[in-house]
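User: If only I could read backbone structure tokens as easily as an amino acid sequence. Those tokens are not coordinates but codes from a learned vocabulary of shapes. Could you go through the record with me and say what the backbone is doing? Here is the record:
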Amino acid sequence: MRIQLSDHFTYKRLLRFSISTVLMLICTSLYSIVDGFFVSNFVGKQPFAALNLIFPVLMGVGTVGFMVGSGGSAIVSIALGEKKPEQANEYFSMMVGATAVIGTLMSVIGFIFTPQISRALGASGDMLDYCVLYGRILFAADPFFMLQIVFQSFFIVAEKPTLSLKINIISGVTNGILDFLFIVAFRWGLAGAAAATAIGQMLGAVIPIWYFARENDSLLRLKFARFHGKVFLKACANGSSEMVSNLSSSLVNILYNFQLMRFAGEDGVAAYGIIMYVNFIFTAVFIGYSVGTAPVISYHYGAGNHDELKNLFRKSLVLMVGGGVLLTLAAELLSAPLVGIFSSYDKTLFDLTCAGFRIYSLAFLLMGVNIWASSFFTALNNGGVSALISFLRTLVFQVAAIIVLPVLWEVNGIWLAIVAAEIFALVLSAICFMALKDKYHYA
């Protein structure tokens, strides 16, 4: 049975509606994970370290897609809740077109300045060459990457999360097959890894364009639309929290690499890269649920259905807390086999990464509530509070912890930084929930 935004949501229905988005984001995460696996095991440790050094920048540029997708989907969902389908389609089409234009401009700029960016990150010699090679290929594919992210949010608004999952599975499987062919069979090295990822991203953007441009049975359809400047700026402001969160993560990753180079050398950078690959899978559960349920929250907020808003708030908190406990236990129990996928060939790297991941994974206990809190306020069209939570959680708290804690505990202090940041963020989220409950009637 098709689940509609206007439905009453039980625990089962919430999980059924959001599971496609969770799996979809896991598939998206597999792009970099599959690249990392093949590069680490079949190309070499130095190209693997170079990939990890430049990758945060590539993800940082792609944050525009998160901003437009999350902020724009909230506006379109509210319009649907207000029974204005024509306006919703106008705004949807405008968001997609604007993303394509912005993505193209940023792609050109990134491609031109890849060498300068790589040098600023500390790359030199062969490492610099590897960074430029991988970075330029993926900068060229940036418009497709941004559109793929945008469509992930709008497929949920269109009540087609399962279709989005299928498209992302196609993209992910294509990426994996091409990684094997380009790296193992054709021996194209790091260039093959980048090309496989770029082709996968292209499929993730082109297929949704083809679907929404034709007659379909979803709530949305692409059409020619004029640019609504105020609406687009409102979407950007509303989705700025998601952009801040992802951009901050990229900046923090760069800082992690600097500190790890200082305390553990190239092995530290490689270890952090492995932890991030595993982390992508675990955080995809939290982000997927938050993205998947955001249009439902926006719809009922737009419809003035306070009872359902309270229901969604209570059930989501329970699911995020329970999910945090389960994922933390899983991370602790599975740390060795997960880390071994990327580092079984090097015992020193394996031991360093295992020890780091066991400390790092304690953050999963709190992370789900904090990620959902930011997404919740975005869905309520309060981009300011959402951005505040994201900015402090992903940048300010983490930067302070990364700088201070290594002074006390060296490498272990670096791994503990994320745990400290999530503790402070949880306090902030609780304060925001309490302060705004009467305004939005969710508690």
In short: The mean pLDDT is 88.
